[in-house]
From TrEMBL:
Active site feature: C254
This protein's name: Phosphoenolpyruvate carboxykinase [GTP]
Sites where the protein binds Mn(2+): K210, H230, D277
Species this protein is from: Candidatus Desantisbacteria bacterium CG1_02_38_46
Compartmental location: Cytoplasm
Entries under Pfam families matching the protein: PEPCK_GTP, PEPCK_N
Listed cofactors: Mn(2+)
Length: 588
């Protein structure tokens, strides 16, 4: 008798009418065959899906050019279809599930004609982890099939795990005709189902990532008492060899990947990479919070990545051990056949075509690489990958960092008074928007815990869930807010960032271990200037003062904006958060 999985695949095939159905095994040999199809037979607009790059600089690497209208997450076309609108909350687009399915069924009818339907069984998390989840994605484009092999653990073993059950997350994906009017990314949390059509962009199409590991998983976490978060996970080793694990939430394209594999500027320190984008956080038997990274690869922003900003990522991209590495929407040096992006080390090459394949030179005043150009590469190639990366239990978290991109107001670092105050602080965090999603760049929006685009249910309930998790933790991590992006009046950054951020992490670790005091302010504890390690760095005194200044008179607009944001959630907003808000306002 056919299994639930087989029946589902058959049903989808009847609807979408692919020429072929291909069950993937996740092998290297298979990936090479699929890439070959993208190199020779499959096209998007004017280009083959893959272009083979010079194998000298970045071995095993290929360039992919997206459809030009399809280069970022489409938040306005992303829906979370709970049975009622209130559960989705004001933070999500919503459609009744039956209506959403009717729409998607029409759009999907015959959408794979002339194409192959790839069936990808995969795990999010190490197969032996009690926290891992089995999933199956269907897709009709080689780029997505191969990217899933890099980003997740694809393999036939998953089918054995699923057996005859329906206990897996289903992801249906088709690029459709790429038309924006026929593009939707829809989630059905109660059915463990994601249905995405019309986009081949990573965040919309690699369904294990944002769609499952954040939107659906956050809903599972609410029901099962855990947290699915938009966080990196790192181990910071001090000169004595002690490793402290930290999780850090920051919005897309705000430096999470750089922080995740930072080369510390302070001697004797080392950062170990567990994850660069997503953390699943569970309460361990010891009452601590334990984190796993459900992913197996990096889908990071290429623009700005260099030996200066992230040497370990450049090394990862050059390793060429796991097949393949993909660059998406970078420029191309036509002399050397290498990818190129703004910020890469060295001179601007003289013969470049831009991310759309058009001749380019700096006098055009445009960017050669798309600002959201990306790489997709295996985490196993990263020289700083943590020995704990595959530990089924994950790592114990001692601190949570919550950040945003703020050119003013927000100090470099401050510590919340306690868990509840930390949830209030994280809930009110704002950040200036970036090119990772389709919207105006540089606009301030509230982005609680960097989860605004990814929380699969009402954020009022999400804050309540955070409070509940805190109550169940015998040893909750301390919560800190960070902001690397503060500038002076002329737009220059006040803090050098990158490897120098270790100085902030050192302060955080000393606070965790109760080694140092701090200055109490209405927003939390900020460092006493003497406690921030500044040896070997030259930061003008006035910059330092600005970086830690909490001039509460300047917070008026911020407070109003936070209040407006919280009010949207009406009765779902926990009283405790309003209490923290009130305390804060009164202190002001
Ligand atoms: C990502 C994002 O791709 O947050 O990780 O957009
Ligand atoms: Mn992300």
């Amino acid at each position: 008798m056919a299994t639930f999985l087989e029946k589902w695949v058959e049903e989808q095939a009847r609807l979408t009418k692919p020429d072929k159905i291909y069950w993937c095994d996740g092998s290297d040999e298979e990936a090479r065959k699929i890439v070959e199809i993208g190199l020779t037979r499959e096209r998007i607009e004017d280009y083959n899906v893959f272009h083979k790059l010079s194998q000298k600089t970045f071995p095993s690497s290929y360039l992919h050019r997206s459809h030009p209208t399809d280069v970022a997450r489409a938040e306005h076309l992303t829906y979370v279809c709970h049975s009622d609108k209130k559960t989705a909350g004001p933070n999500n687009n919503w459609m009744p599930p039956a209506q959403a399915k009717e729409k998607l069924t029409k759009l999907s009818d015959g959408c794979m004609r002339g194409r192959t339907m790839y069936v990808l069984p995969y795990m999010m998390g190490h197969p032996e982890s009690p926290y891992a989840k089995a999933c199956v994605q269907l897709t009709d484009v080689s780029y997505v099939a191969v990217s899933m092999r890099i980003m997740t653990r694809v393999g036939k073993g998953v089918i054995q795990k699923i057996k005859k059950t329906d206990n897996f997350v289903r992801g249906f994906h088709s690029v459709g005709d790429f038309h924006q009017d026929r593009r939707f990314i829809m989630h059905f949390p109660d059915e463990n189902l994601v249905w995405s059509i019309g986009s081949g962009y990573g965040g919309n199409a690699l369904l294990g990532k944002k769609c499952f590991s954040l939107r659906i998983a956050s809903w599972l976490g609410l029901k099962e008492n855990w947290l699915a978060e938009h966080m990196i996970i790192i181990g910071v080793e001090d000169p004595q060899g002690k490793i402290t694990y930290i999780a850090a939430a920051m919005p897309s394209a705000c430096g999470k990947t750089n922080l995740a594999m930072m080369e510390p500027a302070l001697p004797g320190y080392k950062v170990w990479t567990v994850g660069d984008d997503i953390a699943w956080l569970n309460i361990g038997p010891d009452g601590r919070l334990w984190a796993i990274n459900p992913e197996n690869g990096f889908f990071g922003v290429a623009s700005g990545t260099s030996m200066k900003t992230n040497p370990n990522m450049i090394r990862t991209l050059k390793a060429g051990k796991f097949y393949p590495t993909i660059f998406t929407n970078t420029a191309l040096n036509t002399d050397t056949n290498d990818p190129w992006w703004e910020g890469l080390d060295g001179e601007i090459p003289s013969n470049l075509v831009d991310w759309r394949g058009r001749e380019w030179n700096p006098s055009l005043g445009t960017k050669a690489a798309h600002p959201n150009s990306r790489f997709t590469v295996a985490i196993s190639q990263c020289p700083t990958v943590s020995p704990e990366f595959n530990n089924p239990d994950g790592v114990p978290i001692s601190a949570i960092l919550l950040g945003g991109r703020r050119t003013n107001l927000i100090p470099l670092v401050y510590e919340s008074f306690n868990w509840q105050h930390g949830v209030f602080t994280g809930g009110g965090i704002g950040s200036e928007t970036t090119a990772a999603a389709i919207h105006k760049v540089g606009v301030l929006r509230r982005d609680p815990m960097a989860m605004l685009p990814f929380c699969g249910y009402n954020m009022g309930d999400y804050f309540r869930h955070w409070l509940n998790i805190g109550k169940r933790l015998a040893h909750p991590p301390k919560i800190f807010a960070v902001n690397w992006f503060r500038t002076d009046g002329e737009g220059n950054f006040l803090w050098p960032g990158f490897g120098e951020n270790i100085r902030v992490l050192k302060w955080i670790i000393e606070r965790i271990n109760n080694k140092i005091g701090a200055k109490e302010t209405p927003i939390g504890f900020v460092p006493n200037p003497k406690d921030l390690e500044l040896d070997g760095i030259n930061i003008p005194q006035e910059n330092l003062e600005k970086l830690f200044e909490v001039n509460i008179e300047d917070w008026g607009e911020e407070i109003k904006d936070i209040q407006k944001f919280f009010e949207q959630f009406g009765k779902r907003m926990p009283e405790e958060i309003w209490k923290e808000f009130k305390n804060f306002k009164e202190l002001k």
